[in-house]
Amino acid sequence: MHKNIITSIVSIVLFLGATLVHAESSEGETPQQGLHAIVELYKNHDWEGLVKERCLDSQHASSEEALQELVSNLSSQFSEAESLDALVTSYEAALSAEPQIEGEGTVAIFASESGSVRLSKMDNGAWGLRF
Prior knowledge:
This protein is an alpha+beta fold and 131 residues long.
C-alpha cells in the first residue's frame, strides 16, 4: 500500500517537473540570453544578423531595401572601433545586472553604472532592440 502511494507521488512530481520545464522552454529565451546574443552580434560586426534577428524595427520593415538601409546605418554608426568598443563594454556591464521586467513581461531594462539597456520581447520569443 505504501509502495503504491510513494510510486504515485514520485510519478506526480516527475510529471509536474517535466511540465514546468516545458513551459519555461516554450516561452523563449531569457533577457540575459538575448542581451548576450546581441553583444556577440556586435562583437562579430554582424550588422545584418543584428537587424534581422534582434531589431524590433525589422518586423515592420516594408521591404528588403528598408532592412538593408538599417544594416547600412549600423555599419556606418560603428565603423570606428572606439564607438563599438564603448557600446560593447556598456552592454557587457549591463549583463551583470538583474533586469527589471516591465510591460507584462515584454520589456527588460538592464541598469548598470555604464547606463541602461532596454530590450523588448519580439514576436518570435527572442529579445531585441529598437534602433
